[in-house]
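PROTOCOL LOG
Step 1. Enter all chains and additional molecules of the complex.
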Amino acid sequence: NAGVMQNPRHLVRRRGQEARLRCSPMKGHSHVYWYRQLPEEGLKFMVYLQKENIIDESGMPKERFSAEFPKEGPSILRIQQVVRGDSAAYFCASSPKGGNPHSGANVLTFGAGSRLTVL
Amino acid sequence: AQSVTQLGSHVSVSEGALVLLRCNYSSSVPPYLFWYVQYPNQGLQLLLKYTTGATLVKGINGFEAEFKKSETSFHLTKPSAHMSDAAEYFCAVSADSGGYQKVTFGTGTKLQVIP
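Step 2. Run joint prediction.
Step 3. Record the structure below.
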């Protein structure tokens, strides 16, 4: 039973290029979360998606960043026109459900992360 | 709104000594609390969680944490540190946010174990 799969593990881009990060959730999980980890900082929530729906994107920068989770295939985090400040580790997590308050805590299973370096 | 504060970004202990990593939370509703561990170049692994019931929670690798509502704390402890415990530890809080459980992480504490 494979865990959360992220690729690429390492990505190098020059300023102005596009970065695409992919995340395949655990089998049976239909909820995906993206977090960004900057050096010496914790994980910052970016976006929460269910299949074909963005539920909460309150942590996404307003420009250049977008995310999707199509009916078929992995979730994609897309960063257009990357800048050096985008260099970070991007983690995807999945859960079997969004964690209904009446049915228990939302335990996230994390992928190993995609480390983006912008030159 | 919810938040997590981890006191001490770096903690050093000797092998065999007590490990104590501090976490305080803020939540307007009853929270669920977690500790995750991150080894270099890896994702986060769940150590333990508090949902309801017993306030002393035992996790993997000999770690445990106690939920103290009066102190809004959820400190992580281990009686005797091993070299393999060297990693970064994140406290997290989960609370209802518009119908789903939103998880918020602290900034992390790097644990160094000295031989």
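Step 4. Note key features.
The radius of gyration of chain B is 14 Å.
DSSP finds no helices and eleven strands in chain B.
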